[in-house]
Amino acid sequence: MTAVVVGHGFTNHVRKPFVFRILGRLARQHTVIALDFRGHGRSGGRCTAGPAEVLDLDAAVHTARQHADHVATLGFSMGGTVAIMHAATGNHRPDAVAAVSAASRWWTRDTEAMRRLFWLAEQPHGRAAMRALRVRMAPPLTAIPPSPVEVVDRIAPTPVLIVHGTEDHYVPVDHALALHRAGGTELWALDGMRHAETAMTPELVDQVGDWLHTNTGAGARERAPSGPRSARRREERAPSTRRGKTACWRTSEAT
Fold this sequence. Notes:
By secondary structure, the protein is α/β, with parallel strands linked by helices. 32% of the residues lie in helices and 16% in strands. The radius of gyration is 17 Å and the shape is globular. One of its GO terms (molecular function) is catalytic activity.
């Protein structure tokens, strides 16, 4: 059975209902390890909105390797960007990676929603509001790391799936197209879908989980090349009888 390590989006954590629903759905077929990134939920440390969180995901994948032969990563929004960076640069890399609503560049401000979010994260009184959301922010980084779009081509031959909605009001679908072109990834650009965890239907969770299983370990032998997706898949599927388990994991004060 494949272990799926799940990374949440900015301001989320594993106990948020819409995140927990995704974890429960995935756990019907996979072993699931979910973590609170640094500065979020029950984890220590302070959030950098992506770059340092790569270390958190790396530690979670290392843990997953102790319990499963095959490990995949699945990230949403900030977690999707982290998953791409980790698959390209991490010490303990996955066998397959899926990124939902991921940005191609760090701290993008392409939309009004993102400009508001980072204004809150960077202003002193905004940081107080972030603490009310159980997010503790780190000081701004002094050095800018490479962007995901600059390193996504290093992930090959590990399979990469980019999932993005055409109605994403935080991160425009152009980011998914840039990642797809730069890295030769598989792309599902889904008509009408909005942003990250809150946009995930049970059917889409199943489809992403199936993709990870097919492209990880023994399932990889069945894999055939496929082109970009422009619309949600609609085929009927028989109920699965495979059952998994969920483990929630928190980071420490962490470097």
